[in-house]
Amino acid sequence: MISTAIRVARVGSAAELAAAVLMMLGFPALMLAALVPSVYAFAATAAVTYLADHYLHRKGSYLINRLSKVRAGLSIRFLIRQLLLILLLARLSLPGHLVFYGAIACFIAFYGLQAPHGALVTLIRNRRRMPVATRNVDLRSRVHIPDAPPRGLLHRSAEKMLHLDLAAVSGLLVSAAVDSAVPGFVGIGITIALGCLYVLALMPYVRGERIPPSAEAVLAAVDDWLAAYRPETVLYFSGSKDSAYQVNMWLETMEQLETRPLIILRERVILTNLAPTTVPVVCVPGGVHLMNLDLSTVRVALYAANVGKNIHLLRVPTMKHVFIGHGDSDKLASVNPFSKAYDEVWTAGRAGRDRYAIADVGVRDDDIVEVGRPQLAPIRTWQGVPEGRVPTVLYAPTWEGWDGNPGNTSIVLAGENIVKKLVKADPPVRVLYKPHPFTGTVSAEAGAAHQRITALVEEAAAERAADPRFTTVDTAAQERATAELTRIEARLAELTAVGGEKGDEAEATRDGLVDIERHEEAARLREEWNTAYWCSFPSHEHRVITGAEPRLYDCFNVSDAMVSDISSVVSDFIASGKPYAVTDSAEVGAEEFRRQNTAVRAAVILSNGASELGGLLDAVRDPAADPLAADRKDLKRYLLGPDEPKSIDRFNAAVAGLALKAETRNAGQEAHAAGAAAAGAELADMLPGQRLSSTGDTDGVTAG
Asked: How many CB atoms are located within 10 Å of the residue 389 CB?
């Protein structure tokens, strides 16, 4: 029942739900306490509403946003509480007392201060919102960007300002309780004084040298940097916060390009969620600002997603445009008809080319280039299960998707069956469960299935810990690994802080130059963290793995087999050469499933009952007798291309080849323009003679 209420109210926890209920019931209770009247009941109830409101704001509750939509926003709630306090004073027969009129005057004046406070906060935020936000771009030497105001002034400023009424409310309640006006006037004075001081503290940031530069000055500085840097290859991306992983997967590839790279983002939220990188990044939310940037030196633009805002860069003819995507699978998104808008489409292997040919969506075969998947370089090839270690099977289902198709994910219909059979396998295996981060965001049924699977894995882990067959563990080594994790995490926290959290977007843009040494140290420490993580618990222990770390590819490397669904996860796992199984959740049948999905041609096909899992486990335990080993090798080449030359080398060669095409096209256009200009000049020279001929003076004929 509680879980249903949490889902309906769209709150994150039972504590959040309790706070919401207390806040909603608190205001009717305040009115009742005022009408009775009871000072002590009013004070206690007011304290509950203050605390519940503050807790919900701190948690960023969805309910708070909804209340503002129905005219019960933060300022209204504070105003109602103050009016109910006036009602309490009236019911206590205090209207004739000076403190009663002081309370009314105080709250009127206090709300009068809200206008300049809100105006100043809005003005400061708007002025400090840069038309272009950057990382790894030197703007400090080109334009003056002042320090951000202290975080305490602007962060949740409306809530802080309104809470200044606490002094007045407390003082008035004390006055009502002890029948003395002094506490009330003291509280009133404190509230008004603090409100005035808050407004005065904001004033310096809207005048003098603390005013950020104009949009024109910032754009001019960015253009000046672009002219000096002369970018040649651009990675362009637009999307929601949840899609940031689609651009993050290409950062390492961009760092390895042999041309000067640049990343262009269109949403500020993507910049906020961008992983650390040494590549210059420019976030340009405005379409007009983007179209006015000087990108004349760019020859190749790479697109990781098909979105409407791509048109703002696709319109530039001096560069060649390439769709590189954010994964390789048999989903319909991999053959989007929008792809024909690009000059070329780059796929991992031959499978991508064939996929477009079969889909017949207008992408010409000549425009497809096979470049491999540079991101797969960290995936290690399988060498078999190490002697003395329990085999590890990774269950990595995809999420439910937007359309409710039962074939999207195995988690609802097959997930529990898969995990039950794996944890009960004999000889035993270890299970790593790593669900897609979007699991349960659309379907409550998928979310509930995820919770049940998590419980199954955790229960199996507890049983295994008590199993005498698995009691021999190197406790000392695990303790050392745990201590190492703590050390690494502490150092990573220092490195990622980079001198403390930036005050705001403008300050982050000014100071956003990456420290190469710190960046390299952080990358090395993340690798060390991964090694320490897997050593911090027994190699036979079942685990539920959520969050960004350890990464999916790290889970690939410690696993001996995988169970998943139709997604790019399967295509990526094929790079390891390890046995894998894919669930036919829609139950179309094994043969039809293979026909529809290239990536499963070398897989063990599972029904929702998962009865076929034995074939996967047999292949792990006895690789020599694996009937699908040769098929996996052939499929790997078909999907991902050859092992040599390396994918990053093929990617760089494709960039260079397309850049040459862009240069050739631009040179042709310049030659054409020069020829047209010369022809125009020659025609202009002829025009005076033509005018004389019209009078009969130049054609040898004279007037009679």
From this structure: 11
